[in-house]
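A.,

Following up on our hallway conversation. Structure tokens first:
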């Protein structure tokens, strides 16, 4: 009995103990410093997620992990840099949706999104954007809005807060599902697009949840639907888009980590394990939840399949909406 109690006590101590650095050979083969290259400026979601992951990677791998911001060309500058780096696990790309989306909407990108990279780990997805309307729309709810749009397909205009963005693609999917012909009004960013919806110059828009929230709280815009599969805590009474448009697909944004092509599988596995520990922790989950997303850990093979499906979706939607962005 005493031995059993001692074993249980030892097991409890192990469970409660802080995570120890990985000590298998693959982790020890990593360079002394690992660079997480972010194709965006400091302070945004991608940068924040990279810094949260870096902290856990230092603890788990026993390596110096630094974040390097290389903004430019919608993430293409950072992606090209990592694709040309040595495949030793020392230079990794913290990628976002543009990694696959750019390849679908640009005539030329300086990398191949699948072939030139080793998928390491998914960090999470932003699954919930919100369809908002301004004072120019009198319909009270999603069902009435959809009915009015179907009755007169050119009635509503849609603001695009960035041509070629995932929210632009969500707009294409929605308009296509309803056969809408009203104008798309492009803007250089989400903020000016929302301001024109608030002013009543444009009728509707798919907006990031965290950006739309202040205007929603002030009552300057109204939420008609969320794009997630189920209602979300931030807008519990707002229905899902699928409740009125069954079968419509969502255009979710994502964040993940990739290395150059040809990284050894054991090195990739060690990195995946360390990043997975960060994904399963509270900080990344909280950061993603604030924007209507969720953390999600995948194996390298699962992440590769995810990227292939994502690229195929963007190619299809770009063709559907005739979306092409000049570099």
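Then the amino acids I'd put at each of the 327 positions:
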């Amino acid at each position: 009995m005493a031995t059993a109690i001692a074993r249980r006590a030892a097991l409890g101590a192990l469970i409660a103990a802080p995570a120890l650095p990985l000590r298998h050979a693959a982790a020890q083969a990593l360079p002394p410093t690992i660079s997480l290259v972010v194709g965006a400026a400091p302070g945004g979601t991608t940068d924040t997620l990279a810094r949260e992951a870096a902290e856990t990677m230092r603890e788990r791998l026993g390596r110096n992990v630094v974040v390097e911001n290389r903004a430019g060309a919608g993430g293409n500058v950072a992606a090209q840099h990592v694709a040309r780096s040595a495949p030793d696990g020392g230079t990794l790309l913290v990628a976002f949706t543009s990694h696959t989306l750019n390849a679908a909407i640009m005539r030329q990108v300086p990398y191949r999104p699948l072939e030139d990279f080793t998928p390491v780990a998914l960090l999470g997805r932003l699954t919930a954007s919100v369809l908002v309307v301004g004072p120019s729309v009198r319909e009270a709810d999603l069902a009435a809005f959809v009915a009015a749009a179907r009755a007169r397909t050119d009635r509503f205009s849609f603001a695009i807060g960035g041509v070629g963005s995932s929210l632009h693609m969500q707009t294409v999917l929605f308009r296509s599902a309803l056969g809408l012909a009203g104008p798309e009004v492009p803007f250089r960013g989400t903020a000016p697009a929302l301001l024109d919806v608030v002013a009543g110059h444009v009728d509707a828009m798919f907006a990031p949840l965290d950006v739309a929230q202040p205007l929603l709280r002030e009552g300057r815009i109204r939420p008609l639907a969320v794009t997630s599969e189920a209602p979300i805590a931030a807008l519990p009474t707002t229905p899902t888009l699928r409740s009125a448009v069954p079968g419509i697909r969502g255009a979710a944004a994502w964040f993940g980590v990739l290395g150059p092509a040809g990284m050894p599988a054991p090195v990739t596995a060690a990195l995946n394990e360390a990043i997975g520990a960060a994904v399963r922790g509270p900080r990344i989950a909280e950061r993603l939840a604030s924007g209507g997303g969720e953390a999600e850990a995948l194996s390298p093979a699962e992440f590769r399949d995810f990227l292939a499906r994502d690229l195929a979706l963007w190619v299809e939607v770009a063709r559907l909406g005739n979306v092409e962005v000049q570099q």
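The CA atoms of residues 143 and 244 lie 6 Å apart. Curious whether your intuition agrees with the design.

B.
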